[in-house]
Write a structure and sequence with these properties.
This protein is mainly α. It contains one helix and no strands. The chain starts with a helix and ends with a helix.
């Protein structure tokens, strides 16, 4: 190896050590910071997922509870409507008999 080649090699090493290696170290540091931030975001997302799942379960439970109440009200309404139908039918029968009694007496 000649002296000139050695000088070029030393100059190249110096440039690499002074310019490129500090930038590589900064890039590694930045990558480490970015990785930590990503991990923090993953943790936050996992927490949000758990909260959303909890809310979803509460919502389903509340819907089920409301569905039960609606079914109960539906049953009560159906019972009352049936009772009213029976009363109306009885009143209709009574009115028919009354009508027959009144008009048969007038006709005779």
């Amino acid at each position: 190896m000649t002296a000139q080649e050695t000088l070029k090699e030393n100059a190249l090493r110096k440039i690499i050590q002074e310019l490129i290696i500090p930038d590589l170290n900064k890039i590694r540091t930045d990558m480490s910071i970015i990785s930590e931030r990503i991990n923090n975001l993953d943790t936050k997302i996992d927490g949000l997922d758990k909260r959303v799942e909890s809310f979803r379960n509460e919502f389903k439970s509340e819907l089920s509870h409301l569905d039960g109440k609606i079914d109960s009200l539906d049953d009560k309404i159906e019972i009352r409507l049936n009772s009213l139908d029976e009363k109306i039918n009885l009143m209709n029968k009574f009115n028919e008999k009354l009508f027959e009694a009144v008009f048969h007496k007038e006709i005779k």
